[in-house]
Structures are given as structure tokens and as C-alpha cells.
């Protein structure tokens, strides 16, 4: 391929990317417009200066997580790449200041999307503070449409008096900005009447008053995330429902303070149902006062629903799932984790009628016994992700009716399902060859002697796309079987195993044997516990790419 024609270069999370490699890559690539080098620990200012010199037509740059990048490199980008439209940066302890952001905004008139985040640093106890000068420049930028600022300190005094506010955002994301107040949020949005997306998750300073004002200023809002904003109640959500009738995404997960009625109740959810018929995503996780009545109202009125999360809502039962199954035929993602009143009746209704369902999370649904996933029509299911963790009544007979019609299954958790034996695992290995993630662990005081080499030899032969495998507590999986799994599953990166053996000898055996197939095989962690008179060693093994 002719490198002079390259438009995009992506080295995301390439830990070995450094200046010489980047220099060689960009040697004949003057046409590059997009560069993604996020979370590359060796990328520094010299790399950014090289990009600024070699990529004059750069329109998008992602250097999030690059802790060696400082003001000097970013300013060089601002000076040379004036056509920049999108940039994503991270603040660590004193690596960047707002001066670099001001330069980017001032020098790049076409800047459309600016994303900055303060990443946790063990050497820094405080979040990044934005000074007044930055907000003055930001407020006067009329071309910027998407602004993301995560984990930063944004106090009210950040706004200079007399600022000419021209900001006309379509999307504003301020997650985990703990000092954000109603006043500052409303000032930032005062000219953003076309705002579509707002994320103020985990911003405890925002309450009903602030969100009611947002509803008035931004009637075209489509996406609202107020996760873990514990001062938000029914009042604010009703105001959003009545003003923002095109709302498609609502997350109020964790908006819950222990009180008799709860912050978010069926009152707000029914108001959403009655006014926002285009809703496709609803997350009410741990909203204890949301019941079957509220969810049934949403299902009846919002038939385009694709995503529903009611995990931890203890009042939810089969009653609402039956309505969802009947009305929301295109549902793709359902999370009913820890909904203890739900049984196999509700789950079967969903799976048999919502044939587009790809993700089903139902961990700790203790009363689910006999599952029958066979749909009404003779067809395979679309499920790629199933979480049965700690569904303690799930057994081999259940799996017999699940796996044969889920050939696309890629993610499966059977953690804590102590009734599963080799028979159930063989059903999995026989029908689900695309499996990538498998957790069949037993932690704490639990263990399983019902799962052995007999089934996992078949897993090794049939499920060659595995990248993650957790077998903690499965004591009958031998070292020879583990070796076979590593040899056959060439994409496996992380596995956890338990062995009754001498710990140091076990590490040497594993590292010695498995390095036959992998250039790097490192035991990340070893813990031990007593099982009768024997010592059990639990190991987390990190694997590299296969040895050729």
C-alpha cells in the first residue's frame, strides 16, 4: 500500500510506540489527517512536534493517556495544524496547563470537538483546576460543538465577569466534575439552545433547580446522563420529560438517597413514558422505587426501546418483563442483575419474543430455574453476551436449551453456578465456537469438583478464539489441560487457575511449559488458601502473542 495515500494512523494502546517508530511511519505520509496514539506511554512532546511538522493537514488527534505530553508539544500542534477539528488530551500532575488549551482554541478556528480529562495520578491529590482565562476563551468560541471535561475542578468563579458568551454546543460532557454547580452549568448552556447531549454524571452539586433550567433552555435534548446525581428527583425528570419530548437516552442510575419514597419513582418514569415516545435507552439501576408499573408504562408507550437496565430494582418482576417482551420487539440489551423477584417465566418471555437481543445480564437472579430459550420462530438467537453469575439454580439442563441456539455467543459468565458440571460445559464447547470470554470461577469458600479436563479439553479444541478464561476454584483442571488450552487458544491473554500444588514449583512449571507456546508468560498474582489439609494456589497468568 502507498503510504503517501494514508489518511489515518492508529497506534492506540501500543506501549512500545516511540519517536523512531513514529518517525519512520510518518516519513512519507504527508497526507495523514487523523492520528490516534492514545494510552501510548512513550509518546512525548518530540512525537507531537514530529506530527505537527509531518502532518500539516491534521484534523484529528487523540493523545489521551499520554502522560509525557506537555504544553510544548500541544502548542506546537496548535501552531502548525490550524485545520485541527478534534483533539483529546489528558491532564496528569503538572504535565499540561490550560495555556495549551487556550492556544488550541485560538489558533484552530475549525475546532469542533475538544476533550480533556484529568487522570488519576498517585502523586497528585487534587483534580485539575481550570482558570478564568480558559473559560473566557471557551465562552467566546462559537465554532466548538462538542466539549468534554472529565474529573476536573470547575468552581463557579471560573467564569470571568463580562465574558461575551457565544458558545453554541451540541454536546457537553462533564462527568465526575465534583464542584460543578447549577449556576456554572446554566451559564455554560445559556447560549446552547441546540444542545443534544448532556452528561453530568456523578456531579453532586447539580440538583433539581439546575436541571429544570436545562430543560427550559435545551428543548431539543436527546441524551441525558445524570448517573449518581443524588440530588436529582422526580421533579427534574418530569421537567425534562415535558420540555424535551424527543429524548432518546436517559440514565438516572444511582440517583437514590435512602428515604421512604426514593428520589426517582414511577411518577417520573411514567411521565417519561407519556411524553418521550422516541426513548430507546433507559437506565434506572438501583432506583428502588421504580416498580413494574413504571417499566410497563415505558414499554407500552416507548416501543422503540433498545436498552433497558433495571438491575438492583427489587420491585421489578415477571409482570413488567412480559409487557416489555410483548411491546419492545427490537430490544437489544437487558440488565436484570439482582432483580430477585424475576423467574424463568419473565426471562423466557423476553428471549422468545425479542429476537434482536444481543446482551442479557441476569446475575444473582436466584429464582431462575428452568430456562427455555427456544424462540417462537425456528431460528437462532442473536445473543452474544450472557451473564448467569451466581444464578445458583442454573444447571446443565438449562444450558442444554440455551447453547444450541446461541452460536454467536462471545461472552459467558457462569461464576458461582455450582450446579454446572462437565455436561453443561460440553454443551458450550459443542455449540458456541465463537466464545471469547469465559468465567466459570468459584471464589470464597466455594469450589467445584464437577468440572474437569473432560470438558475443558473440548473447550481447547473447539473454542480457539478465547481471550479471557477464569477457572479459579475448579480444582480438577490439570496442568496438562491448562497447557493444551494455551497451545490451542492462540488469542488467550489472561487466565486464572487454581492448583493444589507447591506454589514456587507450580510457577516454574507454568512459566517453563507455557513459554514453549508464548514468548512472554508471566504469573501476575499468587494467592493461597487451605482446602482440607492441602494448600490451594490461585494464579493469574498473563500471556503474550503466540511464539511462531
Task: Explain this structure.
By secondary structure, this protein is α/β, with parallel strands linked by helices. The protein has a domain at 1-125: Leucine-rich repeat, LRR (right-handed beta-alpha superhelix), CATH 3.80.10.10. It is 29% helix and 19% strand. It contains 17 helices and 25 strands. The strands form three sheets. The chain has a 21-stranded mixed beta sheet, with helices on one face. Strands 6-8 form a two-stranded parallel sheet. Strands 20-22 form a two-stranded parallel sheet. Strand 18, helix 14 (422-431) and strand 19 (437-439) form a beta-alpha-beta unit. It is globular, with a radius of gyration of 27 Å. The mean pLDDT is 89.
Short recap of the structure:
The chain is built from 17 helices and 25 strands.
What is the fold's blueprint, element by element?
Blueprint: E1 8-10, H1 19-25, E2 34-36, H2 45-54, E3 60-62, H3 71-80, E4 86-91, H4 98-107, E5 113-118, E6 128-129, H5 132-139, E7 146-150, E8 152-153, E9 171-173, H6 182-188, E10 197-199, H7 208-217, E11 223-225, H8 234-243, E12 249-251, H9 266-275, E13 281-283, H10 292-301, E14 307-309, H11 318-327, E15 333-335, H12 344-353, E16 359-361, E17 385-387, H13 396-402, E18 411-413, H14 422-431, E19 437-439, E20 448-452, H15 453-462, E21 468-470, E22 474-476, H16 479-488, E23 494-500, H17 503-514, E24 521-531, E25 534-543
Parallel strand pairs: 1-2, 2-3, 3-4, 4-5, 5-7, 6-8, 7-9, 9-10, 10-11, 11-12, 12-13, 13-14, 14-15, 15-16, 16-17, 17-18, 18-19, 19-21, 20-22, 21-23
Antiparallel strand pairs: 23-25, 24-25
Helix pairs in contact: 2-3, 3-4, 4-5, 6-7, 7-8, 8-9, 9-10, 10-11, 11-12, 13-14, 14-15, 15-16
Amino acid at each position: 500500500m502507498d503510504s503517501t495515500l494514508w489518511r489515518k494512523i492508529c497506534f492506540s494502546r501500543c506501549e512500545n510506540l516511540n519517536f523512531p517508530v513514529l518517525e519512520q511511519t510518518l516519513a512519507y505520509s504527508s497526507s495523514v489527517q487523523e492520528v490516534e496514539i492514545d494510552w501510548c506511554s512513550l509518546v512525548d512532546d518530540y512525537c507531537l512536534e514530529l506530527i505537527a511538522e509531518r502532518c500539516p493537514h491534521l484534523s484529528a488527534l487523540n493523545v489521551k493517556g499520554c502522560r509525557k505530553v506537555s504544553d510544548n508539544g500541544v502548542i506546537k500542534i496548535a501552531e502548525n495544524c490550524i485545520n485541527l477539528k478534534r483533539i483529546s488530551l489528558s491532564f496528569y500532575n503538572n504535565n499540561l496547563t490550560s495555556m495549551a488549551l487556550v492556544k488550541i482554541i485560538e489558533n484552530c478556528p475549525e475546532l469542533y470537538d475538544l476533550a480533556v480529562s484529568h487522570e488519576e495520578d498517585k502523586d497528585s491529590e487534587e483534580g485539575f483546576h481550570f482558570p478564568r482565562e480558559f473559560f473566557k476563551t471557551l465562552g467566546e468560541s462559537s465554532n466548538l460543538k462538542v466539549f468534554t471535561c472529565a474529573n476536573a475542578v470547575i468552581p463557579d468563579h471560573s467564569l470571568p465577569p463580562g465574558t461575551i458568551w457565544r458558545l453554541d454546543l451540541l454536546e457537553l460532557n462533564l462527568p465526575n466534575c465534583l464542584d460543578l454547580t447549577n449556576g456554572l452549568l446554566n451559564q455554560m448552556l445559556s447560549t446552547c439552545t441546540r444542545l443534544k447531549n448532556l452528561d453530568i454524571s456523578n456531579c453532586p452539586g447539580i440538583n433539581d433547580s439546575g436541571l429544570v433550567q436545562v430543560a427550559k433552555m435545551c428543548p431539543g435534548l436527546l441524551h441525558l446522563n445524570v448517573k449518581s446525581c443524588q440530588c436529582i428527583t422526580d421533579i427534574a425528570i418530569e421537567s425534562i420529560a415535558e420540555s424535551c419530548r424527543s429524548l432518546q437516552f436517559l440514565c438516572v442510575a444511582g440517583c437514590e438517597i435512602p428515604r421512604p419514597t426514593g428520589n426517582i419513582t414511577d411518577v417520573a418514569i411514567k411521565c417519561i413514558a407519556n411524553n418521550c415516545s422516541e426513548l430507546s435507552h433507559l437506565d434506572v439501576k438501583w432506583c428502588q422505587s421504580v416498580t413494574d408499573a413504571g417499566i410497563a408504562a415505558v414499554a407500552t408507550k416507548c416501543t422503540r426501546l433498545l436498552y433497558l437496565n433495571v438491575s438492583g430494582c427489587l420491585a421489578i418482576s415477571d409482570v413488567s418483563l412480559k409487557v416489555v417482551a410483548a411491546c419492545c420487539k427490537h430490544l437489544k440489551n437487558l440488565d436484570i442483575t439482582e432483580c430477585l423477584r424475576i423467574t424463568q417465566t419473565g426471562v423466557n418471555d423476553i428471549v422468545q419474543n425479542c429476537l434482536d437481543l444481543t446482551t442479557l445480564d441476569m446475575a444473582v437472579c436466584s429464582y431462575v430455574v428452568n430456562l427455555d430459550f427456544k424462540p417462537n420462530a425456528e431460528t437462532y438467537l442473536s445473543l452474544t453476551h450472557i451473564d448467569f453469575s451466581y444464578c445458583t439454580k442454573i444447571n446443565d439442563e438449562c444450558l442444554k436449551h440455551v447453547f444450541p441456539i446461541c452460536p454467536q455467543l462471545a461472552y459467558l459468565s457462569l461464576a458461582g453456578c455450582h450446579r454446572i458440571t462437565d455436561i453443561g460445559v460440553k454443551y458450550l464447547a459443542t455449540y458456541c465456537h465463537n466464545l471469547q470470554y469465559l468465567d466459570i470461577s468459584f471464589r470464597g469458600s466455594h469450589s467445584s469438583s464437577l468440572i474437569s479436563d473432560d470438558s475443558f479439553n473440548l473447550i481447547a479444541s473447539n473454542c480457539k478464539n478465547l481471550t479471557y478464561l477464569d477457572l479459579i476454584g475448579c480444582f480438577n483442571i490439570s496442568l496438562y489441560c491448562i497447557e493444551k488450552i494455551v497451545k490451542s487458544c492462540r488469542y488467550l491473554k489472561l487466565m486464572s487457575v487454581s492448583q493444589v500444588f507447591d506454589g514456587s514449583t507450580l510457577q516454574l512449571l507454568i512459566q517453563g511449559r507455557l513459554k514453549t507456546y508464548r514468548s512472554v508468560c508471566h504469573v501476575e498474582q499468587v494467592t493461597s488458601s487451605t482446602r482440607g489439609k492441602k494448600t490451594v494456589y490461585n494464579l493469574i497468568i498473563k500471556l503474550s502473542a503466540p511464539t511462531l
